[in-house]
Write a structure and sequence with these properties.
Elements (H helix, E strand, L loop, with lengths): L1 H8 L1 H6 L14 H4 L18 E4 L3 E4 L2 E4 L2 E4 L2 E4 L14 H4 L7 E5 L9 H9 L3 E5 L1 H13 L4 E5 L7 E2 L1
Parallel strand pairs: 6-7, 6-8
Antiparallel strand pairs: 1-2, 1-9, 2-3, 4-5, 4-8
């Protein structure tokens, strides 16, 4: 009967009754935990030159507060007008700008307008042969992908064609 009563009272009563201490419900730190410290060192502060796409319209893009009209190429440290009218104009020649960058970009995000369009497989193969991954998406998703890659400190670039839709803030 005494054993049943001790079980009902819990661990404190069991210890008082001569049982082994139970450490599974410990609320205070152990002695060795009191003296441990965590230290954080920032190796590289966030660059003020990081490009983020703030929004887009059917006329262009707002990139880091600057309005860019028409298709554009967003490079790691520059924004350029991109001489393409539609996804049909994306070719080996129009992508040569992205292959010439130094340091080489890891990934190129292409926004093809209102919807995802298929590019010629030879164009994509040539980019992969140069060591550049290509992600083809509709422009709204390409903007979000580029922002995500940039926030992760990836060396990314984007080629964007404005969608025909209405204004969307990102």
């Amino acid at each position: 009967m005494a054993g049943a009563a001790l079980r009902l009272l819990g661990p404190a009563a069991r210890r008082a009754g001569g049982g082994a201490p139970c450490r599974s419900h410990r609320l205070t730190p152990a002695d060795d935990e009191l003296y441990q410290r965590t230290r954080l060192t920032v190796l590289e502060p966030e660059s003020p030159n990081t490009m983020f796409i703030d929004g887009y319209t059917n006329r262009g893009f707002t990139i880091s507060g600057d309005l860019v009209v028409g298709p554009c190429a967003i490079l790691p440290r520059a924004i350029l007008q991109w001489n393409v009218g539609s996804y049909r104009d994306i070719s080996h020649e129009s992508l040569s700008l992205f292959r010439l960058l130094e340091p080489q970009i890891e990934i190129l995000v292409l926004g093809t307008g209102d919807r995802v369009e298929r590019l010629h497989p030879a164009v994509l193969k040539q980019m992969r042969a140069c060591g550049i991954a290509v992600e083809v998406q509709d422009t709204p998703n390409a903007c979000a992908t580029f922002n995500f890659l940039t926030s992760e400190k990836r060396v990314a670039a984007a080629g964007l064609i404005p969608p025909r839709g209405t204004y969307m803030g990102i």
